[in-house]
Write a structure and sequence with these properties.
The structure holds two protein chains of two kinds. By secondary structure, chain A is mainly α. In chain A, about 75% of the residues lie in helices and about 5% in strands. Chain B contains 14 helices and two strands. Classes of the chains: A mainly alpha, B mainly alpha.
């Protein structure tokens, strides 16, 4: 048992290392000149990336700012995985949460801050929950696979939010954006460095991870969620209402994604942008897998992906397209999914566990 | 009233039918591909990513070799290569098929985005290159309804339609097809009878890569002569929905894709209809129509159709 749980931690770490190795080969390949020059280029690229992510106080703050929504979308996807549903729609739920919360926040100037902020957060989480709940309801009632329904809901959300910020909820000016939210709904900042402000959002995200840990490991609800994810038929037989569980799981998952969007609006941009989500919902998939659906693993994985994302902007200046991060992520996901590849490479599967 | 008029104008316009055919074609290729994979028991939601790779490679071929046809061939090779990754993970290493496919979608987005600038010198989209020339039916009378509808179509549209028949023949009229269905329904039994479960599954997944990349290449070198970032826009998933609606049969996929194609064509026609004069800020509301229809269809029909029994379940070779 002890050895097996070590392997569970090591698989994502080895996957990350292999992905970085492959990315290095790609960077050497796109470089110019002799092999030594290309190697030099690789070192420059990676050191720029590290500098961009952790090299200064404001760089590190930027990484933490990137982390907050990623923790939440990672939790959203990870919670779904635990219950056996693949919520690939965190992106859309995040967008709907952010849009709804922003609409509320723009009109909440009459409320004092102690009421306005919690209410905005609740509104945003509810919107995310409802949006994901549609997919949960359809899966529970008709059997429609959540991967297809949540993808469709992503596109629908994308078009709804585009319409909203281009039309009725537009504040004029160049890029489509909403009006600024009311002062009383803006999440206070913890620290600031130059033009970078870090809001309390990161604490809310970490609190959400702790709450999820408690729910999953210390409550009967968490037990049911995991049971349904492990074997829905046995759970049904054991008296668990599987349909209800799927809908609730999706709603909680969506609420977490909605919270991610809400915090981006009230803690960072102070308005809704069409590009507010920009793939953070999809990043949640990699993060959940790297973190092995464990809330604390997810926080660690968010630091990694947040760092890669922040650092890649810097890397772009030396001529490595930031898409390299997407490639790295895809390789990690692939290897974590096909963990036996990693185990074969590392020679860990000499003797398989007696589970099957 | 205006709306009714606009609907009527769309349906009586031959362009609507031409658009339906051209919108249905990439879906049809991908849908047939998805069917092959699932018939052997492997879910392949990576269609979206493989289409994107196909679209990109098609233009790369057109740019490097000056011929969209070479682009098409390269696209097929890359599509098969990407599918091989999925096959390796989900057949040999019993990976979670949905997650492995998600990785391939992400890989396709990353690779195409990454290479766009080094290869073409500009981000976002490529310059416009030669596309595959359309087949002109000169015997149809200029200006007639039929001429407007099918007078000038991409040859890939005909290829897609022929592939419906070819796929049907392979799946239902050949020994290979019998094995495909056996492996997708009951791999243990097939294995016992000496059928290579892994071999058949590899074949199904590679077919899905071949077809999906054709669908993607149709979008770029078949229709526009250009690639732009993430140009597949969810079409791979709509193709999956069409496969479900079509009950995992080639003929069903054809009708489902025509339905989704018609929804897209109608959307385009309404948006450009002079009577409605839709302002650009409202257009996103029209763009969500195909997705809403797909959602309703998937939810409404999924219980009425039946996937291959072993679809999505990894199989571990005995002994």
């Amino acid at each position: 048992m002890g050895k097996k749980s070590w392997i569970r931690v090591l698989i994502p770490i080895v996957s990350v290392l292999i992905a970085l190795l492959i990315a290095s080969i790609i960077i050497i390949w796109v470089g110019e000149g002799s092999f030594m020059e290309r190697l030099q280029f690789l070192v420059t690229a990676y050191s720029e990336m590290i500098k961009g992510a952790f090299g200064s106080v404001s760089a590190f703050m930027n990484t933490i700012i990137k982390m907050s929504p990623l923790i939440l979308t990672g939790l959203a996807v990870g919670f779904g995985f635990r219950a056996g549903v693949f919520n690939i729609g965190a992106e859309g739920q995040m967008a709907m949460g952010a849009l709804t919360a922003s609409i509320f926040a723009v009109n909440a100037s009459a409320l004092p801050m102690v009421i306005a902020i919690p209410m905005t957060i609740i509104v945003g989480m509810l919107a995310g929950a409802v949006w994901a709940g549609i997919a949960g309801f359809l899966k529970a009632k008709t059997g429609a696979h959540e991967v297809i329904t949540t993808i469709m809901l992503n596109w629908i959300a994308y078009n709804i939010t585009n319409w909203a910020v281009a039309g009725p909820f537009n504040s004029g000016g160049g890029t489509p954006k909403s009006p600024e939210i009311a002062e009383s709904t803006k999440l206070p900042n913890v620290v600031s460095s130059q033009a970078t402000f870090l809001s309390y959002g990161i604490f809310i995200a970490i609190a959400a991870a702790i709450i999820m840990y408690v729910i999953l490991y210390r409550t009967s609800m968490g037990y049911e969620v995991k049971a349904v994810g492990f074997n829905p038929f046995a759970s049904e037989y054991g008296g668990i209402n599987v349909s209800k569980n799927i809908i609730i799981t999706m709603a909680i998952s969506g609420a977490l994604a909605g919270l991610a969007g809400t915090l981006e609006s009230i803690g960072l941009y102070y308005r809704f942008y069409g590009t507010l989500t920009s793939g953070k919902g999809f990043d949640g998939i990699s993060i959940a897998l790297i973190g092995q659906n464990n809330p604390f693993g997810i926080i660690a994985a968010s630091l990694l992906i947040g760092g890669l994302r922040t650092g890649s902007n810097q890397m772009q200046f030396v001529g490595v397209p930031k898409h390299i991060v997407t490639i790295i992520q895809s390789i990690i996901i692939f290897l974590v999914a096909a963990e036996r590849i990693v185990m074969t490479i590392m020679g860990w599967n000499k003797k398989k566990g007696g589970s099957k | 009233m205006n709306f009714l008029k606009a609907f009527f104008e769309s349906f009586t316009n031959p362009t609507f039918y031409k658009l339906t055919l051209s919108a249905a074609t990439p879906l049809l290729f991908a849908s047939l591909g998805g069917m092959f994979s699932e018939k052997t028991g492997v879910v392949n939601i990576a269609l979206e990513g493989i289409m994107l790779l196909g679209a990109f490679t098609g233009v790369v071929g057109a740019a490097l070799f000056g011929s969209p046809w070479i682009g098409l061939i390269l696209a097929m090779l890359v599509g098969i290569g990407a599918a091989a990754l999925h096959a390796m993970a989900s057949v040999n290493f019993q990976a979670n098929q949905i997650v492995s496919a998600t990785a391939i979608i992400l890989l396709a987005q990353g690779v195409t985005g990454f290479l766009l600038e080094p290869v073409f010198g500009q981000p976002g989209s490529t310059p416009i290159y030669d596309k595959i020339p359309e087949v002109k039916l000169t015997f149809l009378k200029e200006g007639s309804f039929l001429h407007g509808m099918i007078g000038s179509l991409s040859p890939l549209i005909y290829v897609a339609l022929v592939m419906v028949i070819v796929s049907w023949f392979i799946v239902y009229k050949t020994r290979l097809g019998l094995r495909i269905r056996a492996v997708g329904e009951n791999p243990e039994a097939a294995d016992t009878l000496g059928v290579s479960v892994y071999g058949i599954r590899w074949f199904g997944v590679l077919m899905s890569g071949l077809f999906a990349s054709l669908g993607g290449a149709y979008l770029s070198v078949g229709e526009l002569g250009q690639f732009s970032e993430n140009m597949t826009n969810g079409k791979g998933f709509i193709a999956l929905a069409a496969m479900i609606l079509g009950n995992w049969t080639p003929k069903g996929a054809l009708f489902a894709c025509l339905l989704f194609g018609a929804a897209e064509a109608l959307n385009e026609q309404l948006q450009s209809n002079p009577t409605l004069a839709i302002s650009s800020s409202v257009k996103p509301l029209f763009n969500l129509i195909p997705f809403v229809i797909t959602l309703i269809v998937v939810a409404g029909f999924v219980g009425l159709t039946r996937p291959p029994a072993a679809s999505g379940t990894p199989y571990e070779k005995k002994g």
